[in-house]
Amino acid sequence: MTVYEPVYRRVARILREEITAGKYQPGELLPSEGRLAQIHEVGKDTVRDALALLRSTGEVVTVRGVGTRVREEAEVTDEPVGKGTRIAARMPTEGEMHAMGLTPGTPVLVVERNGDVTVLPADRKALIVE
């Protein structure tokens, strides 16, 4: 039985594979939407949907007027947490995204300890239980 893969998902999969293989390096701009449409022989709407999927998973970042680039890996630092600390993940507010310099699709960790609440960028913190 053949499994149907929507065209935009196929384009996203191919781009993901190319990124993983090193064809496009972290921080590097991808070809324009028009060029990607030519390369993959699809319409621009299909390319936009594929890029939206990659943005939603944090693999690429798009800046209007600049283009879409491969997301750069952030340096991860340890955040010690003690027993009884409550940790939850959620998507950030607009203010949190701006204040922490987060890219769309990057979640935050809400750490509650001893009545204090701290919001941390999930792509830059590793929680270490003490």
Compose a concise summary of this entry.
It is built from four helices and seven strands; from the N terminus they run αααββββαβββ.
The helix/strand series, from N terminus to C terminus, equals HHHEEEEHEEE
Distance between the termini: 50 Å
SS summary, helix count: 4
Strand residue percentage: 25-35%
Uncertain runs: none
Globular, elongated, flat, extended or rod-shaped: what is the shape? elongated
Report the major sheet. Answer: 3 strands, antiparallel
DSSP strand tally: 7
In helices, the fraction of residues equals 25-40%
**Rg, Å, rounded:** 18 Å
Q: Determine the structural class based on helices, strands and strand pairing.
A: alpha+beta
Summarize model confidence as the mean pLDDT.
90
Output the strand order for the largest sheet: 4-5-6
